[in-house]
C-alpha cells in the first residue's frame, strides 16, 4: 500500500486532528508517523480509498509520500 502525508487545516484542534487519524484508520489506513511541526501525519492507505480521506472536514491536503531529490 502507498504511504500518504496528510496535512490538517491550520485551525484544527488536537481533537480534530485525532478525528482525521481515526477516520483514516476506519477506512483501512495505518498511521506510520505523527508530525509535530505541522498538524499532520503519514498513513499507509489503500490507493482506491484515498478520496475518502481527502474529503474529511479537517484535512487540508493529502499527498503521496515520495523521495525528494535536489540537484
UniProtKB/TrEMBL annotation:
InterPro entries: PBI_I9, S8pro/Inhibitor_I9, S8pro/Inhibitor_I9_sf. GO terms for biological process: vacuole fusion, non-autophagic. GO terms for molecular function: endopeptidase inhibitor activity. Residues 3-70 form the Inhibitor I9 domain. Belongs to the protease inhibitor I9 family. This is Inhibitor I9 domain-containing protein. It comes from Monosporascus ibericus.
